[in-house]
């Protein structure tokens, strides 16, 4: 079988790599061409484009880079036709992938979507487009199956692939990978995101918070694919701040608390049972547009899945040094607060892991869909 897989973000690269590994187990002769990252390439895909060259976040940023995006779409279509895959497999990244799905369906290609776009948050009308252009939708969040049922569109729920990913890491974790630093009462993880533009918005505030907790070590998880020099200037003024590359899970395994930008990282942090504060700040124009379009109560996956505020969300103007310091102090030193968060984390993990190995199930569904 030949598969063309498109992922446009770091989280998509992670899930895509696990899917590729699972596809290789089902079909040792499988051939995969992909847009993604280092993890997908290491899993056996021939990499066409790296996600770090595709990551445009927010309405304003997309408009600024519209010519590049259109060029990428045009190239992608030509590359797919040249490759002639048995199936096109799309991983999240809706602004790009839904366009490609519609075009691919018109070309008579089999289209599978793994990890649904967040149409339940905004642009619910896109479900009609999905029904028309996607042969099979595989979802990883428990409420998504019910959402699509409302639209009379059957989907397959496989659970969340991060559950198996985190469990596998914990089973073989090495506690010495993140060293103890001087005057260290504990480690606070800083996860400011994977794109330069979001890191520049969030990391400076997270770093200022470190000055309020000199007895703790603050460790920044650097994003893959971003050069070290990008971080150096920001970090140099803080004595109790350090950085690591490629060891985010080792950091979370050891952390007492975390400041995390919204997205997949919030869920990873929860699966390591680390109390966290969700931090978000975007372009002011993009934020005002999104605020009027998005229909969800929370931005953090942990809170969305549990349908309540399990962990504090500090968004836009509320994301400031004083508020973050107050919330961090609470999750570090209030035992009742920590116990409540971790109890909800246990319920969350049961919800996400109830179906077993998500990547294996997704690979089998894709393989069967193509054969059928």
Model description:
The protein has helices at 10-26, 38-42, 59-64, 66-83, 94-106, 126-133, 142-150, 161-171, 196-210, 229-235, 248-254, 264-271, 284-293, 301-306, 321-333, 335-352, 358-371, and strands at residues 2-7, 31-36, 46-50, 87-91, 111-114, 136-139, 156-157, 187-191, 217-222, 241-245, 257-261, 276-280, 312-315. The strands form 2 sheets. A 7-stranded parallel β-sheet has the order 3-2-1-4-5-6-7, sandwiched between helices. A 6-stranded parallel β-sheet has the order 10-9-8-11-12-13, with helices on both faces. The chain has 2 domains: 2-159 and 355-371, 3-Layer(aba) Sandwich (Rossmann fold); 170-352, Glycogen Phosphorylase B (Rossmann fold, 3-Layer(aba) Sandwich), CATH 3.40.50. With 372 residues, the chain is an alpha/beta fold. 50% of the residues lie in helices and 17% in strands. It is built from 17 helices and 13 strands. It starts with a strand and ends with a helix. The radius of gyration is 20 Å and the shape is globular. Helix 5 (94-106) crosses helix 6.
